[in-house]
Design a protein that fits this description.
Peripla_BP_I (chains A, B); elongated; alpha/beta; transcription regulation (chains A, B); DNA-binding; 13 helices; homodimer; four-stranded parallel sheet; DNA-binding (chains A, B); 323 residues
DNA sequence: TTGAAAGCGTTACCAA
DNA sequence: TTGGTAACGCTTTCAA
């Protein structure tokens, strides 16, 4: 493998000049440049990334942290990789599996300059603690955060959930249940707030066993239906789901149990993923791609010294066949 | 940010000794070690990754190349990140979007020592050309490859497809159609070979318009059903799919078109993903996780100087409700 | 057990 | 427009 020194010697110039050619400096004569470029080509030379990173103090790598990669995360991840790539940044995945120690490695990697910035999709460490890492580089979060200086790119789900609730009530459903995600998350709190508010406003019944938590995926959704069926006489008319995948699970299991959707049970998903479209599930359109792009845009002032305009975000309801 | 030099000076030792502490060298007195460790702690010191990578000539990063991240890729990616992480390796995603130039960047990054190794999930460049990069580091592929020294971790899909075909024939289906993936891929050729062989062996009909190519996802699957319905009188009894997602699309669209599954149309997926289970789709179990682990194991001799035993791979058929 | 010094391969500042 | 040289922060070899 050839290096700058060899190129310089062969060309009869100094390393400095070769470096200038590499960095498209205007202060190189045309002649010199062509000569050096020719030699680089002959030697099949490419600069060593580690040396550049060390010297510049910048790696052009961004870490992205998630407890696990599922289809919801995928939509965000995919969009983020795409937009970061447009600005020459690469993306490194850190999956924690909910392990605090493992998750912390990503933050340590910011400190040790392996990555220039960090994007949190989900995290389990204390956010106040995590925000002490902000001094090592910019950090943004998809997951909503409180009491920290880590900015979040997500929207308050209160609005979106409200949309779904109003839709159900307007359609005449009154016995409304929920399949929430992480119990302690801000999203879940927002959703609960919306639910409680509207149910009491309209004087609608709320049964304890209608509200499930820690429901994340298809299998969890299937289980919810089986749980609800335990008390058939108190069966809800509609269910709001943590995400579309939960809705898929509920829909499939409901069919398996000979329930008619939406007559026996109406279902509303969340996110408007491809699958919700395919299976005809009414859902809330969550602009994930726009949020992923915003995540990069929020990092960009510190990364590339450029302020980018953020996409404006808005929920909307997509009515399909499950309500 | 503190560095080795500062630690050394404060501790009253040389950089070499501090470095030895960092690398758990046995040639440091207990006293010295504790003293140095204490100072590191006080200064909140962590070594700079770029400096280490430059000095050692190793980055502990592995690049993984795919044209796009979809759910099938996800299963592989997720498992690979997991196993690589166990050996302290991080994973960098390169999505090419089928763009040869963009894809090549990953290989250039191997050359410029940004990554220590490469895993190809799918690629569009000429494989003979790509294999010239093998001299810069180990490369393995999930996608099957021919005529190169890039080893593949995938199985010949002939076997798996045969399993599905025999199952259908045994169940009495005779008008069998296909939804293939990338037309030029080795997988597709294997599948076609299996199909042609068994159909001629059993003297079964093969209609031109039964065989679709470039069918990759749910939407493509939906379209296949609409296409087939164009000629209702020549409608097949069964369809084999490129993957489970295609099968999902076909199943959903079939229902929408009031076709009964499996009476009017039997469906067989491929891969046995979570979704196939949920929707009760008969499919071929493809040990993706084992293949992802094998991918790392095949790199490991050159990466960590250790030969690992590969998982043995085997297909099997999972019968559910769509056949 | 410790230290001095030469790498690793760039960039960037100051002169010329 | 060019060159010399000091960073960048660590590892590793050779001596002591």
């Amino acid at each position: 493998m050839s290096n700058l020194d060899q190129i310089a010697k062969l060309a009869g110039f100094s390393k400095a000049t070769v470096s200038r050619v590499l960095n498209q400096s205007p202060h190189v004569s045309h002649e010199t440049r062509t000569k050096i470029l020719k030699i680089m080509q002959e030697l099949d030379y490419v600069p060593n990334r580690n040396a550049i990173s060390l010297s510049k103090g910048q790696t052009l790598q961004i870490g992205i942290i998630t407890s696990t990669i599922n289809e919801i995360v995928l939509a965000f991840l995919d969009s983020f990789v795409e937009v970061a790539g447009q600005y020459e940044f690469q993306t490194i995945i850190y999956t924690s599996g909910e392990d605090k120690k493992k998750e912390l490695q990503a933050f340590e990697d910011l400190k040790r300059k392996r990555v220039d910035a960090l994007v949190i999709i989900s995290c389990v460490n204390d956010t106040d603690f995590l925000s002490t890492y902000c001094k090592y580089g910019p950090i943004v979060s998809w997951q909503r955060m409180e009491h920290t200086d880590i900015r979040s790119v997500a929207m308050d789900q209160y609005e979106g959930y409200m949309l779904a609730l109003k839709h159900l009530i307007q359609k005449g459903y009154t016995r409304i249940s929920n399949a929430f995600g992480r119990p302690s998350s801000i999203n879940t709190h927002s959703r609960q707030r919306a639910y409680e508010q509207i149910m009491s406003e309209h004087n609608l019944p709320v049964l304890q066993h209608w509200n499930h938590s820690s429901i994340y995926n298809i299998r969890d959704g299937e289980q919810v239906v089986r749980d609800l069926l335990q008390r058939r006489e108190e069966f809800p008319e509609a269910i709001l789901c943590a995400n579309d995948y939960v809705a898929v699970g509920i829909l499939c299991e409901a069919r398996r149990q000979r329930l008619n959707v939406p007559e026996d049970l109406a279902i509303v998903g969340f996110d408007n993923t491809e699958l919700a479209h395919t299976m005809g599930i009414t859902t809330i359109q969550n602009p994930i791609m726009a949020q992923a792009q915003n995540a990069f845009f929020m990092l960009s002032p510190q990364l590339i010294g450029r302020q980018m305009e953020l996409h404006s975000l808005e929920y909307c309801l997509i009515e399909r066949t499950t309500t």
